[in-house]
């Protein structure tokens, strides 16, 4: 999704000095902050709130609620990280509970400038701000992510990925819709699951298995293959049952999920020639204790003659947190510089 904006305001110094909204909108949660840049070029978060997307009728309502909460309607600019593909005034994202119209949002919130950036593109812009000492190294040898091509990806309500390349004068970030590329199974069980998924959809993309809803799909397929009823009804129920070792189909589904995720990460590293990886998204953080003991790393490395190359590339598990909105703000700083 190409970042877009409304009419730029005339003064760059005014833009960079005044507080503005930075937000990260996922399929489930919306993270919204009032931020401003410091004279030293750092980012100060003045106010921060989280919202459940489905509890609000549209994006504009969330932004208005945030401004009401902090007691102001004087903010005129916003940088929004959000998953989806922009088509004119509309944002296409089947994982959001509502449609997004850029003009309607700008008008309803009384914004002079509204910038939209892909959510994982924003995370990639935030890569230099990630504290690798606080991240979990799953495999590989540590490097300085700000100095190498870094892939940021992960499963949540959907699956997102973006690559940050440390070019001059500022980094280049390449977004993608790789979650909608075809799913590639890696063993007999995954082939059987794929067959079950093809009974539901003519195109089985990666998100059908490697996402929150995808985990539920995999669980239901395994139940069908085992000839048992699918008693668990949400991704969270499947995850919790698997972590508690309370349901054999849930455990099998989470193992399949981790295997497919590892294989997918390896595919994207090879596709982009990435030299470092940050694994984000809502699901990996929830299975932080399960992931290292699963088949994730083995499947990540299972790339034939290129296994040795992948063994050196670090894969860190990170907490998503406020990184998306920090990345949106960082992108907006560059946008202001170009205005």
What can be said about this structure in brief?
The protein has 339 residues and is α/β, with parallel strands linked by helices.
Structure notes:
The structure is a single chain. The protein has 339 residues and is an alpha/beta fold. Helix content is 37%, strand content 22%. It is built from 12 helices and 14 strands. The chain has helices at residues 12-17, 59-70, 102-108, 119-125, 188-198, 212-226, 235-243, 248-272, 282-286, 296-301, 307-311, 323-338, and strands at residues 20-25, 29-37, 43-52, 77-82, 85-87, 90-92, 100-101, 113-118, 136-139, 150-155, 159-165, 172-175, 276-279, 315-317. The longest helix has 25 residues, at 248-272. The radius of gyration is 20 Å and the shape is globular.
Shape by Cα distribution: globular
Mean pLDDT: 90
The separation of the N and C termini measures: 20 Å
CATH architecture of the largest domain: 3-Layer(aba) Sandwich
Proportion of beta-strand residues: 15-25%
Give a quick set of tags describing it.
alpha/beta; Nucleotidyltransferase, domain 5; Hexokinase, domain 1; globular; disordered N terminus
How do the helices and strands line up, and which of them pair or pack?
Elements: H1 12-17, E1 20-25, E2 29-37, E3 43-52, H2 59-70, E4 77-82, E5 85-87, E6 90-92, E7 100-101, H3 102-108, E8 113-118, H4 119-125, E9 136-139, E10 150-155, E11 159-165, E12 172-175, H5 188-198, H6 212-226, H7 235-243, H8 248-272, E13 276-279, H9 282-286, H10 296-301, H11 307-311, E14 315-317, H12 323-338
Parallel strand pairs: 1-4, 4-8, 10-13, 13-14
Antiparallel strand pairs: 1-2, 2-3, 5-6, 6-7, 9-14, 10-11, 11-12
């Amino acid at each position: 999704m190409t970042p877009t904006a409304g009419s730029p305001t005339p003064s760059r110094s005014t833009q960079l000095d005044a507080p503005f909204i930075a937000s990260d909108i996922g399929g489930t949660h919306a993270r919204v902050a009032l931020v401003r840049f410091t004279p030293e070029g750092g980012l100060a978060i003045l106010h921060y709130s989280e919202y459940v997307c489905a509890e609000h009728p549209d994006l504009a309502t969330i932004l208005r609620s945030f401004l009401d909460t902090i007691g102001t309607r004087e903010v005129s600019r916003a940088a929004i990280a959000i998953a989806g593909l922009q088509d004119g005034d509309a944002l296409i994202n089947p994982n959001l509970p509502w449609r997004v119209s850029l003009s309607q949002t700008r008008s309803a919130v009384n914004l002079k400038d509204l910038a939209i950036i892909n959510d994982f593109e924003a995370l990639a812009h935030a890569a230099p701000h990630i504290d690798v000492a606080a991240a979990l190294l799953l495999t590989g040898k540590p490097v300085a992510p700000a100095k190498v091509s870094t892939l940021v990806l992960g499963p949540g309500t959907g699956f997102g990925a973006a690559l940050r390349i440390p070019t001059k004068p500022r980094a280049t970030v390449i977004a993608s819709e790789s979650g909608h590329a075809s799913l590639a199974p890696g063993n007999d069980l995954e082939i059987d699951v794929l067959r079950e998924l093809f009974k539901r959809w003519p195109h089985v993309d990666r998100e059908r298995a490697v996402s929150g809803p995808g985990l539920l799909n995999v669980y239901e397929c395994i139940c069908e293959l085992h000839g048992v009823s699918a008693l668990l009804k949400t991704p969270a129920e499947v995850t919790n049952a698997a972590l508690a070792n309370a349901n054999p189909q849930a455990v099998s589904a989470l193992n399949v999920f981790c295997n497919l995720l590892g294989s997918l990460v390896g595919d994207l590293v090879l596709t982009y020639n990435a030299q470092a990886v940050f694994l984000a998204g809502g699901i990996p953080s929830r299975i932080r204790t399960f992931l290292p003991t699963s088949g994730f790393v083995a499947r990540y490395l299972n790339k034939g003659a290129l296994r040795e190359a992948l063994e050196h590339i670090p894969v860190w598990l990170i907490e998503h947190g406020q990184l998306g909105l920090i990345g949106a703000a960082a992108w907006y700083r560059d946008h202001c510089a170009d205005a």
